[in-house]
Every structure is written in C-alpha cells, then in structure tokens.
Amino acid sequence: MTNPVSRIRNKLKQVLSPFRGDARLSTPTIPSGRFRSRFGGLWTDSPDALAILERKVTNGNISSIQAEQLKCWIESGYVALPEAVDTSTVDALLADVDSIYSGTMEIVLWKLGSQANSK
Fold it and tell me: Among 32, 70, 85, 88, fewest CB within 10 Å belongs to which?
C-alpha cells in the first residue's frame, strides 16, 4: 500500500501542475538576516538551523527520529508523521480533491444569512 503522505503529495502535484508557472507557487528566496521570513520564526527558520539541529542531537536534547523529522521540516517545509491521520480520512480527502478538480462537487465560497454564493 502506498504511503498516505505520498498519495496526497502526488495528488496535489497533479492538481497543481497547471499552475507551475505561477510565481505565487515558487519557492521563496531567503532574505538576508537572522530568519528566512521577515516575520522572524523558530530556530528551525534560522539560516544555521541544520547546525543548531546537529548541536541538539550531540547534546542529547532530541532523539534521532526527531532529528530526522526536523531535518525534513528545515529542508522541505513539511514533516511526515506516520499514522497521524488514519487511512480512511486520507481516502476521503483524495475523493474530495478529485470531486473538486473534476467539477462534480459544489463548493460554497461564502455564506451570508440565507444566501450562499457557490461555484
């Protein structure tokens, strides 16, 4: 059976593929300064985050599994937590994504009082 995270990632790549040229979906550049974001952030957002991570492992502050997950977070911006979401929920999400993408699901954009604007 395919990893649920991989299934979601593959589905999102398929759905977002028409937008690959869209600048809004491009990877942001890292500005100069202490953090990658102008809003600051956690130590994982620091340009030297991998060095900090290595020190935390050396000092015994985090486990090797936590270090692996944090490295993925730092490098890729996400972390896969095995079995954090049950398979039936992932299957329902993928079915909804398919329905939305194919246009068979009505999407309510906003609701005001008894009126709703749908797409």
Answer: 32
Tokens 């609701």 appear where?
Answer: 111
Query: According to the model, what pLDDT value does residue 1 have?
Result: 57
Are the beta carbons of 30 and 41 closer than 8 angstroms?
no
Convert 44-73 to b/e letters by CB count within 10 Å (16 or more is b): bbbeebeeebeeebeeeeeeeeeeebbbeb
- Continuous segment of H or E residues that includes residue 9: helix 4-16
HSE (side-chain half, CA atoms, 13 Å) at 80: 9
26 vs 95: CA distance, rounded Å: 27
The position carrying tokens 């009126």 is 115
Q: Cα separation of 110 and 7, whole Å?
A: 29
pLDDT at 63 over 90: yes
Tokens standing for 52? 């900090």
